[in-house]
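Notebook entry, structure prediction.
Reason for the run: the old model in the group folder had no record of what sequence produced it. Starting over properly, with the input documented here first.
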Amino acid sequence: MNYGDILAAVTANVADIFFLDTGQIAVGKSAGLVLCRGASLVFSSKVQKIWIAVEKQDTDSRQGKLGDCYLQKKRMPEVYSR
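New structure, fully documented this time:
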């Protein structure tokens, strides 16, 4: 399968099966777009931005915020420096 066929298999084809008026970019269709860093179908890609029906969505997650907390270099509290 080429990339276009794979993308259709997880978007437009699924929408057609469930009779949804979405899943593809076309005139008159409601659009939801996802901008990824890297290939969108690769596990290691990171979602940068999401738009659903023209409205930008928040991409912050509880898991992401927790990970960011531990990745930042912070000064340790005084009690740990003894």
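Summary: The first helix runs from residue 3 to 10.
The old model has been moved to the deprecated folder.
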